[in-house]
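Q: What does the predicted 3D structure of Altered inheritance of mitochondria protein 9, mitochondrial look like?
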Amino acid sequence: MDTATASLGSPCTGLRKLPKDGREVIGRIPHTLMPEHYLSVASEAATLSFLALRFQLRVPTAFAYSASASPNPVETPYMIMEKMPGVDFNDCSESETGHGSVHREVVRMQALLHTASLGSIGSIFFKTDIREDWQTPLYAPDENADDASRLFCIGPCMDPVFSRLREESDRAVAVDRGPWPTTS
């Protein structure tokens, strides 16, 4: 990115390169100011996979990811994911029919997501990506086991609000990130 920024004369936050088959992909790296930024990559990849498996939602496919900085050629956590086709929501005018249909689709998805009885409050992870002592079951005890419950668990909460708790001196603030059994 430094090379691209120097060449273009302004800050560069992304590069676009298309594979020969014309499929577009996005390469993402986490913001390193977030404590445990490597976990955010693992949680995002797992959440996308969970949404596709459990709810058959059309979400970007995570083709590859690495939650650690080494050993990988990028030397930082990364995810390579599918770029979804369509028009960017910010590029639509409010008068276009797209706005209303997008809002209806978001509400439909939220209602669908509320049908899952998750076991704890936290973020979704593949069981293979986080330490066993950080894991709680994906579903509440009364929920039936399925393929998702064998692959995924609930782990620490990766909400960005926790990254805002860092002091300007760059010392991490000790915060319980969960997972928590309840909100109380």
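A (community wiki): The structure tokens above were generated from the sequence. DSSP finds four helices and six strands in the chain. Helices lie at 2-8, 37-55, 97-113, 147-151.
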